[in-house]
Amino acid sequence: MILGLVFGGLIGAAALYVTQVDPGLLARLKGALSPGGTTTTPAPSPTSPEAEPVPPSADEQPQPIVHQGLPQTPFEMGVLPADEPVETIKITLGAGTKGEPISEPVDVHLGLGFPLRLHPLGGAERDASFAAFPHKSSLEASATDIQPGQMASFEFTVKADDPGLDTLHTSQQLLTGLKCGDLQRIGFASQGRTDWTLAGYRIEVNGKLFAANGLVDSRPQEKLSTSRDKLMKLLPEYEAHAAKSSPSDSEKAALRAESELVRSLSGRVTGAFPWWEESSPSFKPAPITGTLVQNVHVTLQTGAGAQPGTRHPIYLLAGARKFLLSSELSPLQDDGAPQTYELASFELAINPLTRESLMQPGIGILGSGAAAQRVPDRAQLQRVAIEADAQPVYDSDKNGDDAKVLAAVWLTPSAHFDENGEVVRTPPTANELSVWLAGTPSASVPEKLPPLPPEPPLPPVTIEPPPPLWPPVRIFIPDGYPPPPGGGFISLLDVLAALLFPLPPPVEPLISGVRIDPATTIVRDGDAVTVDWTVSGGTGLIAAWRIDLFGVLPHKPVPVFSIPLASIPLTPSGPIPPGVDTHVSRITPPIVRANIAAMLTGAEALYLYVQPRVTALDGFGNVITAANGSMLPLFPSGTTVPAVGTRRGGVLKPFPPGNASAPSFQVTPPLPALPLPWKGMPLADPLAIRNAWSLVAEHGSHFGLLFASHENIPAAIHLPSWSTAIRPTGDGAEVITIRFEGLVPMPAAANGLRAVAHIGFVGGSSPLTTAKIDARAELSSGPTRRNMAGNLMPFPFGAQPFFRLHTAVNPLPANKASPLLLIDMPLRFDRMTAANFANYPVDPIHGADFVAGPPAGWVAADFAFNGPAYTAQAGTGTMYVTLTYKIRLTTTDATDAVGVIGVRLVPDNTP
Q: How far is CA 612 from each of CA 110, 195, 552, rounded to the nearest angstrom?
């Protein structure tokens, strides 16, 4: 039943062609093709002045139609040798006389795994895509549409002598290796953004007819409306099933079937899969030799190179067919974890694939249509594994040569666009290839991966209005079904709304000020929070709201998860005064961190933020507009503010007396200058160097993420998290130090605490700004006094603590081209025994040394750890925690600053 729904209307649209004639041509031609074989003149309207019969003159007698290229004839198929290599493909497309011009991108699907993009329909600018582009077109240079009653042709070639319109040489790469027998389907895909008619098509291969049909007469908007309606009805129920935290096996099986239906419908609506396919009984492609498969899983694992992931499209090569795996909207990640992609049965029905072609596969990379940097964004793999119909077919780890070659080569696009839109060519070398093929002898590549020039880091993923044609989403998660397409269901609904309403309404509502209620002191797993926002403009269009809470890992290249932690699908908005700024609040359902548990690794659950998103919908459930809000840290369930609260500043005033008390910070100029005294910390940016200030309101970061603040709570002394901006001089030598400390309960139900913070850049415009960060976490008991430099005063001049343990991290670099930097220092009480200080070296005096071990030349007897003092302090159920961060900044912009964001203690239950 599911497959029946999937295939109903899935199959694509053939290329159009008709003659350039007057609007009455079709009616007259149908008469000419009637059984009598004569043309007829349409009967005049009874109300027209020509209602009276008028004898036709000789010039008005039926005349033979002179066609400008292609006749309106039924389906016809040529005869091509199945083993003849494909060198050129010419597609002629005709627009029907009824309807609008063809002015949107149209993809022709020939059963090859990838489409042929009819370009420059819809404009000459390239968009995110995985398709072969033509090297020339019959359209005039400035034309981007085919007028009703007219036709245009597009030519694709394997030859690379003159790429023409195909600036990235996509046809050369994707058509290579094809034979005429590989052409198995004829289908057309588009989004139906205008009401045009497909009148007919003609496809020629190597200058000879492959197939033609002049009587298609099909309208994409009519074909797609049914699919769109089914999808809009199916999405809420499917999302509810996908959000269930612990589905049963039967529920998982049903969810996989629902997922395949959602993917097929969304693929058709967004233009990734055909809406019309040639179904004439006379269409008989060459027989396929081999064992056909119905489902394929491809697992890719990135290698050990720097930034082994990529935003460029990565595709599977199986025989001559090529299937997109990762793309700009779903990039190959850097983290080294296996990433699995599925070719589902509904897609393999259009693009037939055999088990034999998967036994010696290939992996290729194609230049993206998006602007990048002049240095190529490359990919590096350490493993490729393929399963077909749940049976292993190929694994590079089981082939010694393939494993060696994968580890020694970079997949580099042969051409890509730089940030100025210029084409950059990268010639293949021994260790830089655009296509890796299994079976390549290891002797042909270097023994190990050679170093390459540094490539720019991946920018964050932002889901903008939909590109002309979306690629299919194939990434799989461990539960066995793919996550929602693109940036989640909200993004998919945005796409559908844009397709339903290509032009925005005259007065569009504006959503702003989205945030979790400022009085919220802490957000925990299981909490139901209040989301506030303001709406203005055309509020009368809004019939309902949708509120989602998404998990965010700011240190990831793709920080926002696609599956929400909590969601209210449809909440009635109530009457909204038109044209007036209106404050709106809604309470969300409880946050369910388990929704994304399968997508988290290691201790990532402890680093999460939560981001609200508000979407306005009309009376039909269509998206009108949406806005993201500022983020707050997400704590584990059961966390209390007293258990993880700290304060900013020192325990006692620095020695000698007279310096400012907390909140404070310390400036240490480079030697030989004397240390400067601690200073009072302002609440707002004083717009000067050598300073630090509290981030008490929403603040942005260099990676496009907006953070909220807990410090907007009046008179709070201890807080669960802190955010501070720090601006030393820009020479990279001066240091500014900030500290956070407090007496913290030892969590009885956890293994300890983690000190978590994210480092981002606040303000400034220089893209070359960098920073170095030292960080240390201390446990201590007893009085602590620091000197003017901020260091502990040694006994007998200062107040010596009874004991002090610390753990530190080496200097960490940060730059604006990378995501936010994560600093994670574990304070594990389960390891705090006299016999185990491996992760917490004893350093009782040298408080300013950021080293992971005791000072040089120390004698253990002189610095013996005071075990009884630790035991006594632990017996109270509390421990004094001090977190210290030292910041150096290198920049040419005096307004640049470093943000130490979300400094917090998190209960740790990891093993």
A: 43, 37, 10
Residues 141, 64: Cα–Cα separation, whole Å = 32
The vertex-435 CA angle with 430 and 437, nearest 5°, equals 90
Please give the average per-residue pLDDT across 515-540, as a whole number: 87
What single string gives the DSSP state of each residue in 605-650? GGG-EEEEEEEEE-TTS-EEEEEE--BEEEEPTT--HHHH-BEES-
Length of the chain: 911
3-state secondary structure 187-243: EEECCCCCCCCEEEEEEEECCEEEEEECCCCECHHHHHHHHHHHHHHHHHHHHHHHC
Q: How far apart are CA 429 and CA 762, in angstroms?
A: 41
- State the DSSP H helix or E strand holding residue 633, giving kind and residue range, or none if neither: strand 632-635
Quick one: pLDDT at residue 7? Answer: 28
**pLDDT above 70 (res 498):** no
Domains of the chain: residue spans and CATH: 1-38+65-284 (no CATH), 296-444 (2.60.60.20), 504-638 (2.60.40.1930), 642-908 (no CATH)
Rounded to the nearest 10 degrees, the angle between the axes of helix 220-242 and helix 489-500 is 160
* Helix, strand, or coil (residue 432): strand
Helix axis angle, 489-500 relative to 249-269, nearest 10°?
A: 30
pLDDT band at 478 (very low <50, low <70, confident <90, very high): low
Any bridge partners for residue 825, and if so which?
A: 755
* 3-state SS, residue 51: helix
Out of 233-237, 328-332, 688-692, 766-770, the most confident range is 766-770
DSSP class of 704: S
Look-up of token digits 């190529």: 376
Q: Nearest 5°: phi and psi at 213? A: -155, 115
Residues 836 and 752: beta-carbon distance below 8 Å: no
Neighbours of 474 (CB within 10 A): 23
